[in-house]
Design brief:
Elements (H helix, E strand, L loop, with lengths): L3 E4 L5 E6 L2 E9 L10 E2 L5 E2 L5 E4 L6 E6 L2 E6 L5 E2 L10 E2 L27 E4 L8 E6 L2 E6 L5 E3 L4 E3 L1 H4 L35 E3 L6 E6 L3 E6 L5 E3 L4 E3 L18 H6 L17
Antiparallel strand pairs: 1-2, 2-3, 4-5, 6-7, 7-8, 9-10, 11-12, 12-13, 14-15, 16-17, 17-18, 19-20
Length: about 280
Amino acid sequence: MAHSVWLLVPLATILFAVNGQLVFNPDRQAPEEKVPLQITFDQTNKAVCPESEGVYEDATFCDAYWVCKNGAATEKFCEDGLVFDPKKAGHADPCDTPHVVHCGTRQELQEPTFPNEFCPRKYGTFEHPDPKVCNVYYQCVNGVHTEVTCATGLYFNSTQGSCNWPAISQRTGCVDKPKMSSDGAFSCPGGTHLDANGIAVPHPSFPNADDCSKFYVCLNGETPQEASCDKGLVFDERSMICALPETVPECEGWYANDPAFAHYYDSAPATGRADPGRQDVAGG
C-alpha cells in the first residue's frame, strides 16, 4: 500500500508524495497573506495607519498617498498628471503614469494645473488640441511639451497613452497633420514625385524657398529633413541634385556677393557654361 506524506510549501500550494512523486493537491492551498493597502479614518476623521510604518493608498484620490511614520499619517500628492502606484510604495518617488497603474475605485484626481495649451497637466501624454489631428500627440514633462508624430497609419490612443491602429484608437473625423521640418517652414507635399526621367523617387527633394544652397529631403515622401549643397553649388529642383548656379536659372549669381567667389564671377563667361569643372567652385 502506498504511503502519502504531506509537505508544506511556504506561500505556495500544498503538495503530497505518492510513490516518490510530488502530486498537486487542488483542494488545499496555502493561505494568502493580505497586506493592507489603504489608509482608513476614525470617527473623528483622523487618518489611521494600517501599520506604524509604510506608504499607503488614499481611498478616494488616485494621485494621493499617505506616508506613515511611528503611526502618524501624512498625506502627500503626486506631481500633477501622475498617480500613486502601490507597487512602488517603497521607492523615493512612488508615482507613475496612469497608463501603467490600475486605480480601481480610486478615481478622483487633484485639479489640473494647465501649464500650457498642449499640457492640461504637468506630466503625461495628451491628444492634439485639434480633435481632427489624430496622428500627433504631446509628451509633457514638468509642463514642457514635446510634439510626437505617430508612425504612418497609426493614431494616438489616449487610454493607452501611445499610438495604435485606428480601429483600436477609435478616433473619428481625423485629418493627418503633415510632419514639419525642424525650422517649421516646410512639410512634404503628398502624392508621387518623379525625377527628370519620369521615375518615381522614394525620397524626393524640394528647394528651400529662402536659400538656394539649401533644400529638404522627404524621407519616404513624408518626413522632411533639412540638407545643404556643398559650398558653391545650389539646389536644382528639376534634377533634385545640387548644381552650379549658372545651370539653375532661378539661382544664377547666388554666390556673386560672396568674397570667396569674386574671382569666379569676374572671369566667368557670359553664358557661364564653359568649364563646368572650375577649381575655384569650392572657394579655394
